Amino acid sequence: MEPFFPEGGTAYMTQDVPPSIGDHVCAYFREGIFRDGRIKHCILSEMSDDTVCLSQLNPPTTVTVRRSNILAMHKIYAIKVPDGCFFGLPEGSTKTSRWPEDERVASVTTTITPMSFDR
Q: Which of 5, 14, 53, 65 is the most exposed place for a label (fewest CB within 10 A)?
């Protein structure tokens, strides 16, 4: 997602708020769906009963994948960049700030690495 989020940043995700269209998400894919790995940071563009459309920024690309190929998808609510700064993400469906120190939020983290939707 560079230049929006730099490589090596940490994504903070919540499991207690379902992702909505337009949210930054971290999607965990079944083995073999993408050749460069199973975890993708992307923007949720569209959802149906059977498919999910995900977008990336660099290069601008949108892919449609079957829901059965996604093991989990979590909403990203903040990013910590390598220099230590935190950035909260704008959210349409959640009105309160969510931070890792907030004990009301179940959160998980992952390191942002360069990825593409190449299959």
A: 53
CA atoms within 13 A on the CB side of 55: 11
Domain extents in the chain: 10-111
Residues 12/31, Cβ–Cβ less than 8 Å: no
SS3 69: helix
Eight-class DSSP state of 119: -
Q: How far apart are CA 43 and CA 22, in angstroms?
A: 6
pTM equals 0.71
Question: What are the pLDDT digits (tens) for 20-37?
Answer: 999 999 888 888 877 766
